[in-house]
Predict the structure.
Amino acid sequence: MLAWIADVGGRPISRPLREAVAILAICPILLGAALWNGFPLIFYDTGAYIFQSFGDRFVPERSPVYSLFIRWAGGGESLWLVASVQVVMIAFVLAETARALAPRVNVGTFFAISSALAILTGLPWYAAQIEPDCFAGIVVLALYLLAFHAGTLGWWRSGLLVLVAGIATGSHPSHLGLAAGLVLVLVLYKGLTLWSPDKRWPRANLVLPAIAAILGFGLVAGGNYAFTKHVFVSRAGPVFVFARMLQDGLVKQVLDETCPSSHLVLCHYRNVLPSRADDWLWGPGTPFVAMHRFIGTERESERVVNESLARHPVANLAIAARDAVQQFETFSTGDQIEPQQWILYTDFRRFIPYQLHAYSEARQQKGGLDFAVVNAVHVPVAWLALAFLIAMLALALKRGESRPAVVLGFVLAALIGNAIICGVLSNPHARYQSRMIWVPVFALALLASERLPLRTQ
């Protein structure tokens, strides 16, 4: 048995059987954080997804796609099934990325790189978390593969990647923006390469990434229709932008300038507004709650946002740029992964009561997670990855190495786009960039492995 493992470990993963072995081998690694915790990791939003999934009640601030994913993946039986499906999807995309970027990589090296990711980045903390953050990096890698490697991957792998990318895109509103932005990047790249006399640059396939992105939007619209009988993409977007502007002081400025002539209900609260977006959205007894939360504040939030943009465009642009930069450089692991019994106990007891004991006994709920040591490793690694990403991209461009330049440029564009989307349309949180910072580490490791004298058979 050991001889067989050693033999397989030294062979490239390009063959289907070895590919399957490689995917299955890294699944326990990706589940590692949850296994150590004793239960899939939980976030504050998990309760809303469970409520929407099993309560059949529309929750405007949460994607219906991920709620339905929880149901279809077996969350009613065990949230371990949901975590396992997520991990298999992620492992599949990692394996396909390895086959594309490092065709000579063997099973052992792929396992070693994946193990390093689990130690040096926050990937396992998101992969087995009942939260769609695990799919942010998958959107990036899947769209890249569909654009530049569909031909070598073959029709069935490409088809699976379209499906995975569609689900990943639809699972969170920020992923919709990320996918749309990356498709636009591909369109611009396609235009530049068509007019460029340099034929070394790989041609981009726009059809498959566009299909994946459209599938994501379609799943969201279909999910919203299933819950509300109305077709739309989002009703919560203006509310999140309003909350970010409130934190930046722009909402108070507009209300001071326009009240009482604007006849906004918000005028009654302009002197008691909280200073933080999270306090406004999630704090108890806030004006947001009194105005019936997302449904009740949608129209007034949109009015205030538009008024602020019209009155102070330069200030809004400057503040938005500052928030995007803050989001780009904020990526510590463990943001709000903490005891959450008080907010989720009711939903667990109502919808999945037989999982309540295991949930309550997990390290997370007992306060047994400390990310200080974790981030002593993860944060420096993330900064090094960003530095190497930019340096290697510049070097590849200087040397005319088009294929490494394309993947590194695509990853950098994704990181910048994610920071703009999350920092400006919501407000900066460490988890938004942390959930993606493993992608450049993975890409750089694969490109480096391709230059090593690996033993293959």
Q: What stands out?
A: The chain is about 70% helix and 0% strand.
